[in-house]
């Protein structure tokens, strides 16, 4: 349980590398706009925070005004508390149009007192089916935590409070699909009770509505592209003038590798790579991401 505390210390020491200095000073309106359920979105503290809510009528969500081709994205999130079974809080990157790319954090709610599951997934060239699930070493409804996505020409990394929980390498040279399209950042709160909790058996209990998620940290470290259809294969967003593309972000550091291994061994509860029923032969990328 507390092992991760030991790993936290070196991350804090080198925390400057994550460039979160302006975090919290940028207002929501500067980089984001409401995309769904406008009357269920409340701005807090002069736009420094956002409350998304969901009731029987509607969920809600917001998205970035710009499209991005690489970056080190982050939001601070506090998910709905009490009985949140069936409720999904999602934070993701997504491209528009056909054969879409997507990189997902999905917090799957649970009955009161039972732990949340954090699911991640990746779509490349329109193909998803790459789910992994972890349990968290804290209660994500009790406080804000940092959730980050690094996306550069070398790797995608999901971080929880600077601890890498998932790595997806760019192995397009051997035929693994890798997200290449311009993507927007979105966060949504929605009813997923057909699948999210106990495989869809635990339904949303509407007596607890409205469900509320809180989000902060609206500065964006990303390379923006003018058009949502721009492919980033013009390499504009691959330049190492962007700090997240520099060599230190091409792979995990030895310390991060240890923390990542710890998550894999202690917190991973589902991995499509080892689901023999779905994939008798593990997908190609599975041998590269450990
Ligand atoms: C993935 O890596 C290949 C080289 O192996 C490179 O040509 C390509 O641009 C990279 N993809 C992205 C989206 O950066
Ligand atoms: C919903 O929660 C209330 C309050 O705890 C409880 O009385 C009720 O039985 C629950 N309903 C369902 C369908 O689980």
SSE run:
HHEEEEEEEEEEEEEEEHE
Q: Report, as a whole number of angstroms, the end-to-end distance.
A: 22 Å
Q: Please tell me the total number of domains.
A: 1
| CATH fold node name | Jelly Rolls
Poorly predicted regions? 1-21
Describe the main β-sheet briefly. Answer: 8 strands, antiparallel
Proportion of residues in helical segments: under 10%
**Beta-sheet strand percentage?**
25-35%
Strand order of the largest sheet: 1-4-13-6-7-8-9-16
CATH class: Mainly Beta
Q: What is the annotated CATH architecture?
A: Sandwich
Shape descriptor reads globular
List descriptors.
290 residues, mainly beta, Jelly Rolls, eight-stranded antiparallel β-sheet, 3 helices, disordered N terminus, binds 2-acetamido-2-deoxy-beta-D-glucopyranose, XET_C, transferase, glycosidase, disulfide bond
Describe this structure as you would to a colleague.
The protein is mainly beta and 290 residues long. The protein has a single domain, classed as Jelly Rolls (Sandwich). The chain is built from three helices and 16 strands. The strands form two sheets. Strands 1-4-13-6-7-8-9-16 form an eight-stranded antiparallel beta sheet. β6 and β7 form a beta hairpin. α1 runs antiparallel to α3. The two termini are 22 Å apart. The N terminus is likely disordered. One 2-acetamido-2-deoxy-beta-D-glucopyranose binds next to loops. The site of one 2-acetamido-2-deoxy-beta-D-glucopyranose (NAG) has 8 residues, from loops.
């Amino acid at each position: 349980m507390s092992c991760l505390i030991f790993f936290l210390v070196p991350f804090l020491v080198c925390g400057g590398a994550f460039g979160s200095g302006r975090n919290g000073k940028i207002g929501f309106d500067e980089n984001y706009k409401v995309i769904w359920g406008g009357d269920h979105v409340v701005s807090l503290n002069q736009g420094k925070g956002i409350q998304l809510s969901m009731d029987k009528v509607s969920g809600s969500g917001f998205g970035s005004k710009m499209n991005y081709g690489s970056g080190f994205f982050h939001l601070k999130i506090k998910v709905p508390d009490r009985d949140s079974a069936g409720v999904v809080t999602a934070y993701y990157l997504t491209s528009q149009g056909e054969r879409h790319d997507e990189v997902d954090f999905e917090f799957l709610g649970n009955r009161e007192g039972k732990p949340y599951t954090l699911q991640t997934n990746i779509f490349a060239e329109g193909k998803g089916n790459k789910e992994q699930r972890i349990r968290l070493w804290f209660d994500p409804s009790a406080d804000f935590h940092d959730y980050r996505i690094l996306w550069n020409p070398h790797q995608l990394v999901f971080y929880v409070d600077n601890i890498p929980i998932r790595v997806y390498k760019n192995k397009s040279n051997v035929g693994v699909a890798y997200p290449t399209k311009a993507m927007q950042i979105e966060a949504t709160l929605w009813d997923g009770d057909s699948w999210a909790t106990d495989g869809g058996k635990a339904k949303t209990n509407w007596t607890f509505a409205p469900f509320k998620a809180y989000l902060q940290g609206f500065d964006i470290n990303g390379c923006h592209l003018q058009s949502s259809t721009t492919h980033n294969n013009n390499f504009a967003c691959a330049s190492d003038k962007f700090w997240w593309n520099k060599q230190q972000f091409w792979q995990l550091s030895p310390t991060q590798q240890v923390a990542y291994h710890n998550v894999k061994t202690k917190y991973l509860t589902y991995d499509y790579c080892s689901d023999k029923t779905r994939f008798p032969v593990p997908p190609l990328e599975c041998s590269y991401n450990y």
